[in-house]
Write a structure and sequence with these properties.
By secondary structure, the protein is of the alpha+beta class. 33% of the residues lie in helices and 22% in strands. The chain folds into 2 domains: 104 residues, 2-Layer Sandwich (wza like fold); 110 residues, Phosphatidylinositol 3-kinase Catalytic Subunit, Chain A, domain 1 (Ubiquitin-like (UB roll), Roll). It is globular.
Length: 241
């Protein structure tokens, strides 16, 4: 388990090595899909999309290897980053094993607060779901990153160092193993809308592949400028609304 670099502020910011900044709790609620939202989306979903939503509602969001950043005030042994084990279970110090099967990321904080309350009186609990994703291709720092589930897809690219001289943001897709699970057109829409990786149903271990382009330095400057402006717009929008 990786230790916190500092205390996790219950209603504030989270900073872990290799991890993006978590937003305020209102932002978390807004940017992660709720059970009601997923159930409502079943009505218009078809084929593979419908099956994926139904599986998410049944099995939950957590996969072995995912991380949970937990903070329980005045309980230092429970203030740490914990790894989801095989069987979708979480083992916390001095507590019985907790099953996360069927739990959505948007439900994590309240779910764990209830579990901790079974053993600690009136606990003050905060929990952030972290997803380990690979950002590969035409970025400045390709690699694996643990990012909060509510992180906008565009911001994940910036965490990996941002676009480089070869980036083509129209050629971004998400792969799960050898399978493309989010196509380029959907990623372009997600970048423009500020969609989070949770809303995109990204799983731990997925690969965000950043495509390359030709066009020389002028095209590169334009790409980086447009992407930086887009990210700034997302940043301010999430704080206005």
């Amino acid at each position: 388990m990786a230790k916190f670099a500092g205390s996790l502020l219950v209603a504030g910011l989270l900073l872990l090595p290799g991890t993006a900044l978590a937003q305020d709790q209102a932002g978390v609620d807004r940017e992660m899909a709720t059970r009601a939202e997923l159930q409502a989306s079943l009505g218009s979903a078809e084929g593979e999309d419908r099956a994926a939503i139904q599986q998410r509602l049944t099995d939950g969001d957590f996969q072995p290897g995912d991380l949970v950043a937990l903070s329980v005030i005045e309980e230092p042994t429970l203030t740490d980053t914990f790894t989801v084990r095989s069987g979708r279970t979480l083992q916390l110090p001095n507590l019985p094993e907790i099953s996360l099967k069927g739990v959505l990321r948007s439900e994590l904080r309240s779910f764990l607060a209830g579990k901790v309350a079974e053993h600690i009186r009136n606990p003050q609990v905060d929990a952030v779901a972290l997803i380990r994703v690979a950002v590969l291709g035409a970025v400045n720092r390709p690699g694996f990153y643990n990012v909060p589930a509510e992180t906008p897809a565009a911001e994940v690219v910036m965490i990996a160092g941002g676009p480089n001289q070869n980036t083509d943001l129209k050629k971004v897709e998400v792969r799960r193993g050898e399978t493309v699970v989010i196509r380029r057109d959907a990623m372009s829409t997600a970048f423009a809308a500020g969609t989070s990786i949770d809303q995109l149903n990204v799983h731990g271990g997925d690969q965000i592949m950043i495509g390359q382009k030709s066009g020389g330095w002028r095209g590169t400057v334009q790409t980086v400028g447009l992407f930086t402006g887009l990210l700034s717009g997302i940043y301010f929008a999430t704080r206005i609304f």
